[in-house]
Amino acid sequence: MSTRTITGNLANDPEVVPTGSISSTKFRFIENTGDYRHGKFAPHDTPTTHHVEARFELGQTTAATLHKGAPVAVVGREHTNSWGPDDNRSYGRIIDADIIGVDLNRAVAHVRRTRKPDEEA
After folding, report:
1. Across residues 84-89, what is the average pLDDT?
2. How far apart are CA 15 and CA 17, in angstroms?
3. How many domains, the chain?
4. 36-50: average pLDDT
5. pTM to 2 decimals?
6. What does the alpha-carbon distance between residue 11 and residue 36 come to, in Å, rounded to a whole number?
7. Is residue 65 part of a domain?
8. What stretches of the chain show up as alpha helix (H) in DSSP?
9. Which domain does 18 fall in, by range?
């Protein structure tokens, strides 16, 4: 797996789903792809879509904070996954997120530090 840093927008609201003994937060992510031509950014006609998964505190705070359309940056390990029956198999890019943050080039955020259960107020 390779580590990627991508910027873009959430294509849907994050969804918390049980995955074994833990829960995972999943959402689709549209990467802002394009090229600089003559000093100007020219977006590609078809943006790249990724599926992002975040676990533990990152997943919980992502689900509580972000919504469809939010401009974010994601850092994580990318791999390709497949699902569905063999005769109709689907493939997609999955990013196991290590970091998810609001893209402050395109949004304003109010930052409030979270506390771990064992920390005092």
Report:
1. 90
2. 6
3. 1
4. 88
5. 0.80
6. 24
7. yes
8. 56-65
9. 2-102
Neighbours of 6 (CB within 10 A): 20
Give 31-40 contacts, CB < 8 A, sequence gap 24+: 31/6, 31/7, 32/7, 32/8
Pick the more confident residue, 27 or 114.
27
Task: Note the pLDDT of residue 80.
Answer: 87
**Tokens 């975040």 sit on residue:** 54
pLDDT in tens, 46-76: 888 899 999 999 999 999 999 999 999 999 9
Residue with tokens 């789903």: 17
The answer to whether residue 55 is domain-embedded is yes
Distance CA 93, CA 2 (A): 12
69 falls within a domain: yes
- CATH code of the domain in which 50 resides: 2.40.50.140
C-alpha dihedral (103, 108, 23, 29), degrees to nearest 10: -40
Domain assignment present for residue 19? The answer is yes
| pLDDT for position 117 | 66
